[in-house]
Amino acid sequence: MKRSISLDRAQAADKVFDVVIIGGGASGLGAAVDAAARGHSVALFEQADFAKGTSSRSTKLVHGGVRYLQQGNVSLVLEALRERGRLTQNAPHLVHSQSFVIPNYSWWEGPFYGIGMKVYDQLAGKLGLSPSRHLSKKETVELIPTVEQNKLVGGVVYHDGQFDDSRLAVNLAQTAEELGAAMLNYCRCVGLVKENDVVSGVQIHDIENDTKFTVRAKSVINATGVFVDDLRKMDEPQAKGIIAVSQGIHIVLPKSFLPGNAAIMIPKTADGRVLFAVPWHDHVIVGTTDTPLDSHSLEPRALEEERDFVLTHACKYLTKDPKPEDVLSIFAGLRPLVKAGDGSDTAALSRDHSIIVSGSGLITLTGGKWTTYRKMAEDVIEQAETLGGLEHKRCQTEDMQIHGWTRAAASQANLASYGSDALRIQDLIKEQPELGEKVHAQLPYQQAEVVWHAREEMARTVEDVLARRTRALLLNARASIEAAPAVAKILAKELSRDATWEAEQIKAYTELAEGYIFPID
Question: Per the record's keyword annotation, is ATP-binding included, yes or no (predicted)?
């Protein structure tokens, strides 16, 4: 996936695209893959990097949503469980089954949650993972040795999916590009083009090259997540906002806090949310929160009360109590939820996706979650076919293999998430053995990976590499800052940048990553 190729495609003279997509997160990338797979001409523009926002800051779960089952939203759970099954088949290098234990501290919790999880199993049908079952106290402790044992009576174990969100985003961008789409990061939509009051294209600012160009289109999709209202108001200045922004944060701890392979799921915390402690990349992710916000940004920050909430609840359910100095990283993400009423209670808002069409034909796709990205894409492209006067073609993505697809286990743990591309990265090391060196002693990533990111995954900055192509920023913020000079040096060589660019990149990344360090009083 090379940026120059996509730029050439996007700027082709007299080209009118069938579908132009603004936004390079889960919903936008999914729509690009769906449209391109049907044979439509596609261009996607992302103002920052692919999955820069919400789509790289999830709990890393591909799940039906146990909480939605509690809320009685069976249709959403059913759809999500089907999509979970498809994703495990379409991207097995990134998605796998993960066991979750619900620890029971009252006699009634076993039958209560046990029955609920059996319903969850049945809804998954043939696309289910492994069946749920009751656990004795001894079995519960064997699976999660560091669970709080005071008043513990047993547990329930069930299975859901786990994945690497930004790695899936990169693979989706690669898949769309291989199908002929123009996929561009660091390209911001700065205006809409209209003919007879109907949207007929977009004005794009290529931030990297500081140039502007116009792209014509038969249909335009607004898939900008928490920014959808900004683009809607570009179309209709008087448009009412439809998004309620909810922030969720996570902390990352060393593996010693949850040494087994099972995750912990707490069905109901003090604020009514589900809390997870999940093994991920040999670390532990704990979260999340649901905090209504009045604003949105590309770099949200965890609030003090959110930090305290997650840390307090981690202490409540783990025998080894984490302290601020144990936290390796803390990250925040913003959920774009469709407003209901005043939108003040974001925990109660639906995670269903919505498709809204303006009077000028701008299609807005919002809401939803990673698990259902493929179905969201199918729905919005069918809408785009109708509005754009395109030939209606059957969706091709239900069983389509995503770039990197393989069921073979990688010989190196750090290369597992690259799937079939792992062999090509190993070839780089054979050609230049020095590329086998790590970028930092406390991180698993090799220099060859950075070369690969620049050449084949459209990484343009140190942040692209350390935050999303690898997960260094989330796994160990301090170590990632120390790795920045090594990464900048490799990128500068690959992208033909000078020493000034290198220094600017190190400075910019350091400032960003410092916001991921848990403050210690």
Answer: no
